[in-house]
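User: For a benchmark we're assembling, each entry needs the component sequences followed by a predicted structure for the full assembly. Here are entry 17's components. Please fill in the structure.
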Amino acid sequence: MDKDWWKENAEGVPHLVTDLPGPKSQAMHARTTKYMHGLSGQVQLFPVCFDEGYGVTLTDVDGNKYLDFSSGIYVTSLGHCHPKISEAISYWAKRLMNAHDFTTPVKEKLMEKMAEVLPGKLNAIQLYSDGTAAVEAGLRAARAITGKHEFISCFRDFHGKTMGAVSCAQMVRGDVLSYGPTRAPGFYMVPRPNPYRPTFAKPDGTIDTDRYIEFYEEFIREATVGNIAAFVLEPVQGWGGSIFPPDDFFPKLRAFCDKNGILLMDDEVLAGMGRTGDWLTMSHWNVVPDIVTFGKSFGNGFPVTAMVVKEEYADALDKISASSSYGGNPMACAAALASIEVIEEENLLENSTRVGEYFVKRMNEMKENHPIIGDVKGKGMLLGLELVKDRVTKEPFEEAGKLVYQKAFRKGLAWIPAGHILRMSPPIIMDEKYAEIGLQIIEESITEVEKEFGY
Ligand SMILES: Cc1ncc(COP(=O)(O)O)c(C=O)c1O
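Assistant: Structure for entry 17:
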C-alpha cells in the first residue's frame, strides 16, 4: 500500500461551503436529538453531522470538509477508512462474521502478530469489543493471578463506565453512577504526578516523585487491608488532558509494585498501539506492566479490544473465561491485524514520533506569543495545550478552552475539547504540512479569544 494513499483527498482542506454547522447538519441533529439523549460535551458544543471520512479529513452532510485532529475519539489513528483495513474487514464480513471464541485463521495470525510486537513476553491474550470490557477483564485477571481483591487507581484517570471501571475513576457529580454507594468496596484512589501541577513538590517547586511513592506506601498501610491486587493507571492521562508523568515515575512505580507484591495494570486503551510513537506507551520509560489493555487505535475504528498479561501469568487467564458475544470475531481480528501491519508497513511509529516533535516545537513557539498558554504537552501524536488565566496562579481558563474549541471547529478543524486543556489526537499518518494547517487554525482562534478576554 502506498503510504501517501490519503494525500490527494486532503489537498485544500479545510474546505467550507456553508457557515458551520451547516443547515443540513443542524436539521439532522435536531431530528436525531428528539430521540437520542446524553450526548458528549464535544457534540453539544458543535452539533455537526458527519457523512464521510477518508485519511485525515471528515466531510459533513452539507459538503464541508474538515481537517481531523481527533481520530474519532483517539480511535481512527491510521486515518479514516484506511483501504487495507476496510478491505480486511469486508473480506470477513462476506465470509464469516462470528464464530464465538473458536479459533479462526485470522485470529491465529493476530495472536502471533501481537506476541511479536509487544515487549517483555506480554503474550497471554483475551479479546473484547470495547475498552471498558477489556479493563474489567484486567481487573478479573489481577484477582485471579494474585488471589487478592483490592485496587489502587489514580485521580483523574478514566477507565470506562461499568461498575468496576468506574470504581477506578473519578465520580462525576450528576452522573447516574454518582448516586448512591458507587465505588465498589476495595477500590481506592491516589494522586499521580502531574509535573505542571504537583501535589508533592521539592523546595525548588519541581515535582517530587519519591514523595508520591512514599505516600502510596503510607496510604496502603493506613487505608487498605493490604490486599492489593493491582495498581491500575493510564500511562498518560487522556481524558484528564494529555498529562504525562515525569520520566522517573514509571520506573519507581514498577519498583514499588515489585517490592509490595502488587501487579502493575497499564490501561493503554487510549494511548497504546502507536499513538505515542510506540506499541506500548510504557516502553518510553522501559517499563513492562503485568497487565495491559488496548482499544481505540487497536482496530482503527472497528470495535475490538484486548487484555494482555505476561506469559508467566497465562494460566490464571483460564480462571476467567474469554468468551464474549463479539470479542475477537473474524472482522474484529482482521481489523486489528491489518492495523498492526499498516503501522509496520508505513513506519507509523516513526511518523508519530517525528510529527509529534514538530507539534511540540510549534506549540512551544505559540506559547511564547500567547499569555493564556500555560503548558504544552505531547509525546508522539497525543497532544495538549493547557490554557490558564494567569501563568503564575495557573488558574484553569475553562471559558477560553470552550471558545477556542468552537472557533477552530467553525474554521474547519474537527477536534476534541476537555475544558481548559485543548487536546489533540490527529491520525498518526499525518505529516508536518497538515499539522501546520491545523495549528495555524488553533493559533488564530487563541488570538481571537485572547482579544475577547482583553489579554
Ligand atoms: C484509558 C481508557 N480506558 C478505557 C476506556 C473505555 O473504552 P470504551 O469507551 O471503548 O469502553 C477509555 C475510553 O475513553 C479510555 O480512555
